[in-house]
Amino acid sequence: MFTKEQAKTKMQEYVDFQNNLFIWNDGYNPEIIIYENLTQEKDFGWIFYWQVKEIKDDYSNVIAGNGPIIVENKTLDMYKMGTAQDPEEYIKMYLEDKNLLAKLDKDKDGVWDIVNLD
Q1: In whole angstroms, what is the distance from residue 50 CA to residue 7 CA?
Q2: What is the secondary structure of 38-56 as a DSSP string?
Q3: What is the layout of strands, in order, in the sheet containing 45-48?
């Protein structure tokens, strides 16, 4: 079994990748972070929520499609939840068949990608 800190470290690698991936207008750098106060612990692992650190009043700097990420405690495998439904619906999907969610993995070049969906 892996620890929450190990899971958070892996999640932080993904967030760091996202911070370097996004190109913002006018050199704006919103700093994407893990919202630690929203992290949920479940029997299977942790659910991490991530978004820009400081959201503008008009929401012009938020990231769309940044569903929460499940990090398994037995493997540190990562599964991305969607944003169209309540997180509990995605948790049900994960528990029924985790491959219904997008599995994220980092390749040898450090690029994160979905590895289980065609």
Answers
A1: 14
A2: G-EEETTEEEE-EEESS--
A3: 40-42, 45-48, 69-72, 78-80, 102-106, 112-114
Tokens for 16, please give them. Answer: 């760091």
End-to-end CA distance of the chain: 30
87-96 contacts, C-beta under 8 A, 24 or more apart: 87/47, 91/42, 91/47, 94/44, 94/70, 95/44
The rounded distance, in Å, linking the Cα atoms of 56 and 76 is 33
Q: In degrees to the nearest 10, what's the CA dihedral of 92, 93, 98, 103?
A: -120
Q: What string of pLDDT tens digits covers the 118 residues of the chain?
A: 999 999 999 999 999 998 887 666 666 667 889 999 999 999 999 999 999 888 888 887 788 889 999 999 999 999 999 999 999 999 999 999 999 999 999 999 989 999 987 6
